Amino acid sequence: MEKQTKTTEALTKANNSVVEKVAISKREAIEYRDYKRQKKRAEIMSALSFSEGVLETTEEIRRVGERAVRLRQAAVCLPSARLLEAGEYLLRNAVAMDCVIGGNGDTLPKVKAYEARMALRLRAKELTLVLSPYLIENCKYTEIRKEIRRVRRVARRAVLKVFVDARYPKERLAQMARIASESGAQFFCVPYFEGCERLRGDLIGGCRLQVSKVEDLSAFKRLINMGVGRIVTSRGWEIFSEWMKEIEKIDFPELTAAQKPSEALGTVKEAQVLLPPPVQEKKEEKKPSNSETDYCCRLEGKDLKFL
Q1: How does pLDDT run across 162-177, given as a tens digit for each residue?
Q2: Antiparallel, parallel or unpaired: β 230-232 and 22-23
C-alpha cells in the first residue's frame, strides 16, 4: 500500500511538472471553459429528467406545466379532479400525468380501483396508490397485498406507484417496500427523511424508490448520487436556478501567474508549448590525422589507386 502511494505521488508530481511547462492561448482557454460549462449544464438537465413536478390545489396548471416542459421533468403529480384540465396542456407537451389514487388512503379498495380506471380513461400514464394507514398500523399485510394487486390489474401498462407515509418505524417501511415490490409496483414512494435511500435495499423485481417533498438542492444532489429512481419536488424551478449558478463559477483552467489568459497570453494568437531546452548531442572529437597511417583509396577498374 505504501509503495502504491509513493508511485501515485511520483506520477502526480511528474504530471504537474509537465503541465507547468505547457501554456495555452486565450482562445483555447475560453473554449475549454465553455466546454466545461456546457458539460455541467448537460449533467444538470439529465438529473432533472429524473424529477417530477407537483400540482398544488390552487396552482395554475399552465404555470406548472411550462416549468415541467422546460426542466424536462418526467411527470407531474396531481389529484384526479384536475386530470381533465391538465391533460389539455401536459399531453400536448409529452409530459406524463401522475394521478393520486385513494386520497388519504382511507377509501375502499373498490373505490381505488374505480378511480384508477377513470384516471386511465383521462389518459393518465402513472398511478400513485395511497395505502390505508389503518391497514399499515395494524400490520394487515394480506389485505395490503390484495389492494395493490387489484389496482395493478386495473393499471395494466400504466406505471403503478405505492405511497406510504414516513411516520412509521423504519422496520415497518422496509416491510412495506418488500410487499409493494412483490405485488407488482414499479415504484415505492416515501416522503424525504434522513436515510430514506436505504430503502432501495428492500426493493426487488425492478421496483425503484421514489422520494417526495425534496425542497433543497443538497438533498436533491445526494438522492441523485445514491441512485434514487424518481424525485418529486414542488421547488424544481428554484433548485434548477440555484444549480445553474454553479456554472458561472466555472472559470478558466487553473494556470500559473505567467500563463493566465488575461496577462501573459492576452496577445498570443497561437498555442505556445514551453518545452525544456533540447539536449545537445555530443560530437565526437576528431583525432588529428597522421599522414603515415591515415590514407584513403578508390577503385578504378580492377586497380586500387591510393590518394
Answers
A1: 999 999 999 999 999 9
A2: unpaired
